[in-house]
Amino acid sequence: MTLPPTGRTVEDLLAEVASMKQHDLPVRGGQVTAYVYDTGRPEVHEAAARAYFEMLEVNCLDPTAFPSIVEMEKQVVGAVADLLGGGHGVFTSGGTESIMLAVKAARDAAGRAAPNLVLPVTAHPAFHKAAHYLGLRVKAVPVDLETYKLRVEDVAAAIDEDTVLVVVSAPSYPQGVIDPVAEVAAVAAEAGVACHVDACVGGWLLPWLREAGADVPPFDLSVPGVTSLSCDLHKFGYAPKGASVVLFADPATRRRAYFASAAWPGYTIINATVQSSRSAGPLGGAWATLQALGREGYVELGRATLKAASRLREGIAAIPGLRVLGEPESSLVAFAGDGIDVFVLADAARERGWFLQPQLSYAGIPANLHITVTGVTLAGVEAMLKVIADSAETARRRGPAAVPDGLVELIADLDLDALDDATFAELAASVGVDLRPGAGQPGMAVVNAVLDALPAETREAILLRFLAVIYGS
């Protein structure tokens, strides 16, 4: 892009934005089962959008300059703490930043020379990202391949003198099951180690499911031994993106998450988050969403979500060749195929206007498709089940994704760092993925099949190159 010689009109700009979005997945209606969360209530989204815009240009860098952000954050964090067992919190841009701060606080509080994290293989990659950025080692332990939950004895065996944090999920994203929080927290406490509950998905969902009748075990800061917890409000809080909270049981630990610097001749630097300057728009949007829905609204959404998730699990189990993985205790559902290539099924569903999220096999867990059930899902759950059934039949007829002979071995042996972006784009084209601008959505079954056959390190290297190519120079 080059700057236009003169300014353009609002109408012209919005028309181009609409053109850019023509290949985007829809953010409303429930046909996209990942990334977006829809209440099905336009008035709630309108309230959030207007509050977001009102706070758009307010800078969270200096709370003394803009006291509105202090009041809003106190109210938002206070609501989360009230629901999740108390604590002292920070409003962040998302689950990854909340997790980053929890890991930083645990690392700084423990003061180990070679700190490590103990977590299940199902823990969100944000913990690996935090460890990578903050200089910690990850000790990943397996999960039970029947329940997909962390085993307490494996955690106990993995903890050593350098462990600064143990992680459990409520629920884990891949299969939607809740790790044994109380038991793991007790083991961590006995070893003198902090315990973080990743409730980014479940923090603002599980309490409402419990109120709607679901059997939800204790998982929050009220559980002895739990020292921190992350909860995303832009998931089942239905706030605009950029809204999460990390809670700490101890205010001194929260201070460990902060950063301050006075070793320069400029303005005072004090940050509660990783970012410095940041818009208060997401904070305003989160505040307005919580206020617009209220407790009654969230209970109603929880009831609808619980009913939809139950119907979805039941309906998928009745489709020949498909099986739900584990016994999900939330509204995340994952299913695998027996004699059906789930990656081909996902492409067939996409052709019908529905997005089902592929998940690669790992640590003994088979490749599967993931569905996030939200407040709007119930209205379309029968339509979704029909799409899944029809797509499963299509996948059965098409057979497994046809991977060119020798391609997996070729990629496994490649020195990807030696390839320039143009050569990598040609390699992608060989499996039917056109990365050129405006090419539209390619079929992903072959790509996912190739990735699924490769070790994790090679998958990651390919994904990094893919990102570099689609963004270009």
Automatic annotation (TrEMBL):
Q: Which prosthetic group or cofactor does it need?
A: pyridoxal 5'-phosphate
- In which domain of life is the source organism classified? Bacteria
Q: Does the keyword Lyase apply?
A: yes
Instruction: Name the keywords, alphabetized.
Output: Lyase, Pyridoxal phosphate
Q: Which InterPro entries match?
A: GrpII_AminoAcid_Decarb, PyrdxlP-dep_de-COase, PyrdxlP-dep_Trfase, PyrdxlP-dep_Trfase_major, PyrdxlP-dep_Trfase_small
UniProt record similarity statement: Belongs to the group II decarboxylase family. Sphingosine-1-phosphate lyase subfamily.
Name under which the protein is recorded: Pyridoxal phosphate-dependent decarboxylase family protein
